[in-house]
């Protein structure tokens, strides 16, 4: 048997304009950023979901960095839970401005307010990005009364590289005795040792290839990538103790480079008796939810259901 796209994704792949030109996503970090910038400009222009309002805040990290953040809420919602969101981009790309449409969609569907954080990107900033994420989380629960939320009903969520950072922040929270209601990890980037996969799987990718992953992890970790010097908060697959981590929801596509590491992470959580829900979506690739597909809508709806249960 060979891998096959989900029928909705196959229809898109059959259209010459359906997928971005894959070869242009492989190159140096500078080339990748230059190629992605027009796409990100389009994302920055997308409106907020109807009924959602947002305001910017500034969070001072433990090392004194003024981190940008954005607080979203649904007008008329009395939800007391909240989510802190860590954007994707392989830990080397993007920022909070590109996330307005997606985050406001979660807020509109779930009624739950979100804080989106602008953590520092690699390689320019060597501090573990999970530390920035934990600082954002500590700010959020520290302002719970002001924001009208319950500090014990707050989750950390992220996609792709941001999900890896979110998982790292969950490890730090456990280690430092910080309460965390849930970790929601959407096709997470967890393992710096994932730098190759079978040719058939890599050939079905449309945005994130094994070569991209190697380059990104080298930007984050430098010469430490693949060595025993990598910290669990930097690459959560390196974690050896899963006891006491926050309950988790994990989702990944069957055709995603991160499939195996996501499944393994979920198994290790379950083996440590940590409640974990794992969804492996047949025939879907990394960032499949960026395309206008019914299956992407269903994924957003179920994630929003999970969020609404906090």
Provide tags for this entry.
single chain, 310 residues, alpha/beta, 10 helices, 36% helix, 8 strands
Q: Give the strand content.
A: 15-25%
Straight-line distance between termini? 40 Å
User: Which parts are unreliable, with pLDDT below 50 for 5 consecutive residues or more?
Assistant: none
In total, how many beta strands? 8
Percentage of residues in helical conformation: 25-40%
Q: What does the radius of gyration come to?
A: 18 Å
SSE layout:
Elements: H1 7-13, H2 29-44, E1 52-60, E2 66-74, E3 82-86, H3 100-110, E4 114-117, H4 129-142, H5 144-147, E5 154-159, H6 161-175, E6 182-186, H7 199-203, H8 210-221, E7 248-253, H9 259-271, E8 276-281, H10 294-308
Parallel strand pairs: 3-4, 3-5, 5-6, 6-7, 7-8
Antiparallel strand pairs: 1-2, 2-4
Outline of the structure:
With 310 residues, this protein is an alpha/beta fold. 36% of the residues lie in helices and 16% in strands.
Describe the overall structure:
- The chain has 310 residues and is an alpha/beta fold.
- The chain has helices at residues 7-13, 29-44, 100-110, 129-142, 144-147, 161-175, 199-203, 210-221, 259-271, 294-308, and strands at residues 52-60, 66-74, 82-86, 114-117, 154-159, 182-186, 248-253, 276-281.
- Strands 1-2-4-3-5-6-7-8 form an eight-stranded mixed β-sheet.
- The longest helix has 16 residues, at 29-44.
- The mean pLDDT is 94.
């Amino acid at each position: 048997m060979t891998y096959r796209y989900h029928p909705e994704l196959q229809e898109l792949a059959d259209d010459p304009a359906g997928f971005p030109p894959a070869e242009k996503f492989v190159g140096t970090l500078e080339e990748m950023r230059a190629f992605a910038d027009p796409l990100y400009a389009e994302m920055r222009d997308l409106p907020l979901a109807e009924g959602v309002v947002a305001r910017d805040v500034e969070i001072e990290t433990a090392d004194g960095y003024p981190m940008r953040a954005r607080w979203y809420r649904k007008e008329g919602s009395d939800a007391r839970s909240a989510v802190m969101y860590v954007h994707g981009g392989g830990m080397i790309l993007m920022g909070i401005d590109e996330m307005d449409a997606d985050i406001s969609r979660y807020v509109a569907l779930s009624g739950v307010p979100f804080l989106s954080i602008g953590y520092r990107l690699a390689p320019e900033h060597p501090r573990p990005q999970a530390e920035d994420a934990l600082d954002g989380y500590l700010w959020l629960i520290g302002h719970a009364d002001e924001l009208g939320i319950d500090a014990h009903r707050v989750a950390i969520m992220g996609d792709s590289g941001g999900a890896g950072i979110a998982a790292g922040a969950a490890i730090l929270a456990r280690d430092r005795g910080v309460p965390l209601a849930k970790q929601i990890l959407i096709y997470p980037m967890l393992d710096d040792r994932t730098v190759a996969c079978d040719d058939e799987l890599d050939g079905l990718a449309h945005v994130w290839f094994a070569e991209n992953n190697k380059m990104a992890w080298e930007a984050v970790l430098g010469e430490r990538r693949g060595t025993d010097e990598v910290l669990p908060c930097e690459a959560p697959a390196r974690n050896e103790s899963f006891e006491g981590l926050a309950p988790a929801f994990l989702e990944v596509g069957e055709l995603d480079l991160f499939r195996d590491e996501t499944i393994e992470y979920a198994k290790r959580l379950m083996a440590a008796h940590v409640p974990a829900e794992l969804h492996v979506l047949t025939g879907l690739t990394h960032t499949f939810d960026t395309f206008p597909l019914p299956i992407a809508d269903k994924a957003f709806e179920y994630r929003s259901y999970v969020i609404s249960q906090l």
